[in-house]
Design goal:
single chain; two-stranded antiparallel sheet; 14 helices; globular
Length: 342
């Protein structure tokens, strides 16, 4: 895995170098330095799971055949396109949410001299994806399929972000808007398509597959993405901050979290009143009351039951798939997230 990661990072260096020499734009030293610094700050800083998953998935789809250097590079380039997409979303998300930190560092727009130039940087990040695809895939028979795939997933993700933003409008804190189906819709569109479906779809396209023949794979990966976000919501409240690397603030931030929608579903009138009075308030006293209520409702137990049922359902769906190679890809994804602690 360490070898794969270092090979993957080498691909980043090459792609960045090509973008900084793009013949379609006449760079000055200042503009080249700006883009160089902006890319290094925003693109390679995360866990890189989405990007590495493209190479992993492609390797499993090739059923143990040794990958050529060219195949590793191309799968890596598609992996980086997903990391670029993620960087574009996060740079703009942080501005919309007025966030302060991302991955333990100040958000890009909080950096001195950056500010709202970060909006244009987000647009540039999105455009870099098209440049990378053109540079390395234009001669491939599946080039148009890749463009369609990235365009569609970007549209789905931006639409998911819109539902999230209009559900949690500032000054309109209204828990009646929150439900399990609303939570599911936000997660499906905002997270599941680009984080779970897109890496596998890239690998399938590279092997010459038609994605229209793999709707079942898409559905399984979207379900996995929803399960992953429910885990995230659970860990935000019940996880160990030292393990997950952040202090959860979903309660203070009035997030449409799985925990609050489950609580609303199973609580009595008195408990509902307490939720309405305390949810979304920054005071630690209010937060503690919400957590106490979650414990009273045994949401830990409710989550554990959800987790085991989701796992059984996913395994059953995966094992019904006719291709052993596709099963291996899906099981590899599930193995990485089942019962995770961070």
């Amino acid at each position: 895995m360490a070898d794969l990661r270092s090979a993957f990072l080498k691909v980043y260096s090459q792609l960045k170098s090509e973008l900084l020499q793009d013949p379609a734009f006449e760079f000055t030293d200042d503009s080249r330095q700006w883009v160089d610094r902006m890319l290094d700050y925003n693109v390679p800083g995360g866990k890189l799971n989405r990007g590495l998953s493209v190479i992993d998935s492609y390797r499993l789809l090739k059923e143990g055949k040794e990958l050529t250097e060219d195949e590793i590079f191309l799968a890596g380039a598609l992996g980086w396109c997903i990391e670029w997409l993620q960087a574009y979303f996060l740079v703009l998300d942080d501005i919309m949410d007025n966030s302060h930190t991302r991955r333990g560092h100040p958000c890009w727009f909080r950096k001195p001299k950056v500010g709202l130039i970060a909006v244009n940087d987000g647009v540039l990040l999105r455009n870099h994806i098209c440049r990378i695809l053109k540079n390395h895939f234009r001669g491939k028979p599946y080039y148009v399929d890749l463009l369609d795939l990235f365009n569609e997933v970007e549209f789905q993700t931006a639409s998911g972000q819109m539902i999230d933003l209009i559900t949690t409008l500032e000054g309109e804190k209204d828990l009646t808007k929150y439900s399990l189906s609303k939570h599911c819709r936000i997660v499906q569109y905002k997270t599941a398509y680009y984080s779970f479906y897109l890496p596998v779809a890239c690998a399938l396209v590279m092997t010459g597959e038609n994605l229209d023949n793999h709707i079942d794979v898409k559905n399984i990966l979207v379900d996995m993405g929803i399960y992953f976000q429910v885990q995230d919501d659970y860990l935000d409240c019940f996880g160990n901050p030292e393990t997950i690397g952040k202090i959860g603030t979903d309660i203070e931030d009035f997030k449409c979290s799985w925990l609050v929608v489950k609580a609303l579903e199973i609580c009595n009138e008195e408990q509902k009143k307490a939720l309405y009075e305390n949810y979304g308030k920054p005071d630690p006293v209010n937060v503690a009351k919400v957590k106490a209520l979650y414990n009273e409702l045994n949401l830990k137990g409710v989550f554990e039951e959800y987790e085991s049922k989701s796992y059984e359902k996913l395994i059953t769906s995966i094992e019904a798939h006719p291709s052993k190679a596709v099963q291996a890809v899906l099981k590899s994804f599930l193995g990485k997230i089942y019962k995770r602690q961070k």
